[in-house]
Write a structure and sequence with these properties.
By secondary structure, the protein is mainly α. It folds into two domains: 86 residues, Response regulator (Rossmann fold), CATH 3.40.50.2300; 65 residues, no CATH class. 49% of the residues lie in helices and 8% in strands. The two termini are 37 Å apart.
Length: 184
């Protein structure tokens, strides 16, 4: 069990190396295309640092051909996650690389998305923006905390959004939060 693991974000490769020096994470999602220092160079620098060989580093990229895949793996990455990717792919990589096990509910009770959609329309735009930011940076704990804040005023919304988040149904969750037509 990981305790208070958290997530940090770097805007470029140099900052990524600096973050590693301060934090020593178990896993890094490394974008290949970054300003100042690309993902391959940043990964190679991290590998030379104390603990850098043990840290799992996943290449995160959109533009890799089959021949480039082998080169990325040979350069020192532990895995590659290609964009666009299947919804469960990041979780599968976390399970594989870190030995984690995610609970996946087989059945999520049928949700009346039309009713949920109507209730979500009443949420403050600031709350929605913060939630979408938490999703963008991959902060599951932050999303969970924001949803829990709905308990007093919107208990049904809190319950339904928690169900979607816990079931990793991020597509449906984002559709609901983004005010799109749901459940079609």
């Amino acid at each position: 069990m990981l305790s208070e693991a958290g997530i940090r974000e770097a805007v470029n490769g140099i900052e990524g190396v600096e973050q590693y020096l301060q934090w020593h994470p178990h896993l890094i999602w490394m974008d290949i295309q970054m300003p100042e220092l690309d993902g391959i160079a940043a990964m190679k620098q991290i590998r030379k640092l104390p603990g850098g060989k043990e840290c799992k580093i996943v290449a995160f990229t959109a533009g890799v051909f089959v021949e480039d895949h082998d080169q990325l793996m040979a350069s020192g990455f532990d895995a590659i996650l290609m964009k666009p990717y299947q919804e469960n792919a990041p979780f599968e990589l976390l399970e594989q690389l870190l030995g984690l096990t995610f609970r996946k509910d087989d059945v999520v009770e049928a949700v009346n998305y039309e009713q949920l959609h109507d209730e979500v329309l009443r949420l403050k735009p600031e709350w929605k923006q913060e939630f979408l930011h938490m999703h963008k940076v991959g902060n599951y704990k932050g999303m969970k905390q924001l949803i829990s804040e709905l308990e007093a005023e919107f208990p049904t919304v809190k319950y339904r959004l928690t169900e979607l988040l816990d079931a990793y149904d991020l597509k449906q969750l984002l559709e609901v939060i983004n005010d799109k037509e749901c459940g079609e």
